[in-house]
Every structure is written in C-alpha cells, then in structure tokens.
Design brief:
Elements lengths: L1 H22 L1 H35 L2 H17 L5 H11 L3 H11 L5 H10 L5 H12 L3 H22 L20 H14 L4 H35 L2 H15 L7 H9 L1 H9 L6 H14 L1 H14 L5 H25 L1 E4 L2 E4 L10 H38 L1
Antiparallel strand pairs: 1-2
Helix pairs in contact: 2-10, 2-17, 3-9, 4-5, 5-6, 5-15, 6-8, 6-16, 7-8, 8-14, 8-16, 10-15, 10-17, 11-12, 12-13, 13-14, 14-16
Organism: Parageobacillus galactosidasius
Protein name: Sporulation integral membrane protein YlbJ
Keywords: Membrane, Transmembrane, Transmembrane helix
Length: 406
C-alpha cells in the first residue's frame, strides 16, 4: 500500500505544480529569472574555480598527500581519514555543495568507506565566507559586524556537528575500522603523492578538459535546482500555502521567544537561503539579535534547494542522504545557539554601565575587499559563465566527435 500511496502523492504533487505554473505564468517567469540571475552572476563564477582546482588536486595526488599529513587530526576528531581535511577546507572556502561533490568523488575512488562518506558529508558542507560577509551581513543587513557573529556561529556549529556525527555508524564499523599503518611522515606523504601521479599518466590538457567538463556539469545541475526552488517558493506564496504553514510555524517561534513576523521569512529561507536571509533582514518588528538567530539557523540548515543539490550528488555515488539531513537540523540548532551565546561578548559593548549596540548601517567599516569582490562577481560573473559554457560545449562536441571517429 505504501508504494501506491507514494505514487499517488508524487503524481499529485507534480500535477499541482504544473497547474500552478499555468495559473501564475508571470510570477513563475519572474522567480525563474531571479534564480537564473543568482546562478550565472554569483554561483557559477564563484564555485567553478574551486571545482576545477579540486579535480586537479585529486588527479595529481595532492589530496592523498594531505590525507597522510592530516590523518592524526581528522581520525581522532571526526573518525574520517585524513583526506577529509581537504574536503572540509574546500567546503568552507567555496560553500554549498562542494563538500558533497568532493565526498562523492573520494568515495567513488574508494579512498573512504560508506560510513565515512556519510560522516564527512554531514559537516563539510557550509556557506562560504564571501556569502556570509558580502551578501548577508553587508548586502542585506548593511552591517559588516554581524558577519563575524554569523560566520563564527556557522563554522563552530559545523565542527560540533562533525564531532557528534563521529559516532554515526560506529556499530557497523566494529572490526572494520581502518587505521593508517604510517604515522605523520613527510617522506611517506610525498611518496604517496608521487605514486598517485604516476597512476594517472594522462596529459595535462586531458586532465584539465575533464576537470572543466565535470565541474560545469555539476554547476548546470545546481543551476537547475536553484531556478526550480525559486519558482516553487514563489508559487507557494502565490497559492497562500506559505501563509497557512506560517500559522503553525508561529507556535514554534513562540517557544523560542521569537516574533511571529519572522515566520514567513523563515519558511522562505527553508526553501532558499538567499531569499530567506533578505526577507529576515527586512522584517521591521524584530530586534537585530532575533534576526541574527533566525538567519543563522537558515544559513546552517541550507534550505531545501541546497539539500536537493546535495541529495542528487550523493545519490550518484550511492551515499545515503538521511544522515546529511539530520546533520543540517543539528547544525541549524547549534548555529542559532552560538549566535545567542556570542552576541554579548562579540557584538554588544558595555559603555558606562549600559549596553550599547553597534549602529546597524555602519557600511564604511566593512572590509573593502569583500565589497569590491562582490561587485566584481555581479559585473563580470555572467561573462565568465557564458565563456565556460561555450568551452564546455566545445569540449563535449570534441569528445563526441572523437568517439564517432573511433
């Protein structure tokens, strides 16, 4: 009976979505354009270099070298191999869903086990610093000081998630726990680097072409999800479904003493973090601390758009999505709690016995490089996207032509 009920539910949902597109064509088009602009202006040009470099680092054996060197840190803390340190660092630097992509790649190369892949994916996916400081704190809140709170809460919360998820699958690993036969050793690490490079004797041009093609394919999938969930979010609002859900959500917010006005922005944030963060920043009947807590939660939760991207990447490698979803809920709770804890020591300053809050619209104190880089992304991002899409088409056509000739 369950499979039949699932079939009816999925068919009904897709049919309702199709009818909604017909009923609200103008709003759907506007939401689609908004998602497309976000993808080709910011997401594609900011993630592409990280994806390409990551592919090359794996091919040249640099990741294996780091795996040997980071084994003494990653194994005791998170119960994952040392190569997880590379995934962790790249995930923090480049943002969602880099951690999932690199985890899937290492799993497919049999450098990590299934349980280790589930652990690794749970804490190596996060928002990148540029988005937290540039888009959220400066762009939406016009408050660069808020970025420090959000970033620290976000990354400390992720570390806590990793330390909890180290216990995931512990019973399944009894008698199977892998331990490195070699201690921390630079000579052994460089030997591993050399042996890995020798195993992959492909020309540099071929490696670079494969890296570009694989990265663009992943980014096209990410773009599709961003546009899809942007449209879904808008349709839910137009059909007043968001409004009905907000009534239930208000009771949850009341338990945490947060204003009910944050319900609709947070629901939007559960689907797409950029729109949710923007709506939270524009909520008038909420204090800045309350806005920061709500924003911290949705940044850590990632939104269903990001989770759908991760689910697609993990599914291709046959890695379960459920542990990742549970970890995102934990991360959201941790990040919100750390925002509350860090608020007074890092944001509020005692002055003459009174608590004085830093002015909200203090844009001039923001790091100039963040504003400059963010402006460059919006200005030149579309050009970079178009150039690499053309390069991808050329590489794919060349590969297809080569197969036809052979």
């Amino acid at each position: 009976m369950k499979p039949k009920a699932k079939t009816v539910f999925l068919a009904s949902t897709v049919t309702l979505f199709a009818l909604s597109l017909i009923c609200y064509p103008q709003q759907s088009l506007e939401a689609s354009i908004r998602g497309l602009n976000m993808w080709w202006e910011v997401v594609f040009p900011s993630l592409l270099p990280f994806f390409i470099v990551s592919e090359l680092l794996i091919s040249f054996g640099v990741v294996n070298l780091l795996g040997v060197l980071l084994e003494p840190l990653m194994r005791p803390l998170f119960r994952v191999p040392g190569v997880g340190g590379f995934v962790w660092a790249m995930g923090m630097a480049s943002g969602y869903p880099s951690g999932a992509k690199l985890t899937a790649r290492l799993y497919q190369e049999k450098q990590i086990s299934t349980i280790e892949a589930e652990r690794l994916a749970s804490f190596t996916n996060s928002s990148n610093p540029l988005f937290i400081f540039g888009a959220v704190s400066v762009g939406f809140f016009h408050n660069p000081n808020l970025g420090i709170i959000l970033a620290l809460s976000h990354y400390i919360g992720n570390i806590c998630v990793g330390m909890i998820m180290r216990f995931h699958g512990k019973s399944q690993e009894k008698g199977k726990q892998k331990r490195s036969k070699h201690s921390f050793s630079f000579p052994y690490a460089f030997r591993v680097l050399h042996e890995t490079r020798l195993k992959n004797e492909q020309p540099l041009g071929k490696l670079l072409g494969d890296a570009v093609r694989s990265s663009v394919q992943t980014l096209l999938m990410i773009g599709g999800f961003i546009i899809l969930f942007s449209v879904i979010n808008k349709l839910l609002y137009m059909m007043h479904i968001t409004e009905y859900i907000s009534f239930i959500f208000q009771y949850i917010l009341h338990l945490f003493q947060l204003p009910k006005e944050l319900s609709i922005p947070m629901i939007s944030g559960l689907f797409e973090i950029t729109l949710g963060s923007q709506m939270i920043s524009q909520t008038d009947k909420a204090e800045l601390l309350e806005k920061a807590i709500a924003t911290s939660f949705i940044l850590a939760f990632g939104g269903f758009s990001v989770q759908a991207q991760v689910a697609s990447i993990l599914a291709e490698a046959n890695i379960r999505f459920k542990p990742f979803f549970i970890a995102r809920i934990m991360h959201g709770c941790f990040a919100a709690c750390f925002t509350y804890i860090l608020w007074k020591p890092l944001y509020v300053h005692p002055a003459d016995g009174n608590m004085r809050v830093i002015p909200t619209f203090l844009i001039e104190r923001s790091p100039s490089w963040i504003n400059h880089y963010w402006e460059l992304l919006h200005q030149f991002g579309p050009i970079i996207t178009i150039v690499f899409l053309c390069l991808y088409i050329w590489l794919t056509a060349a590969q297809w032509q080569k197969k036809v000739i052979e």
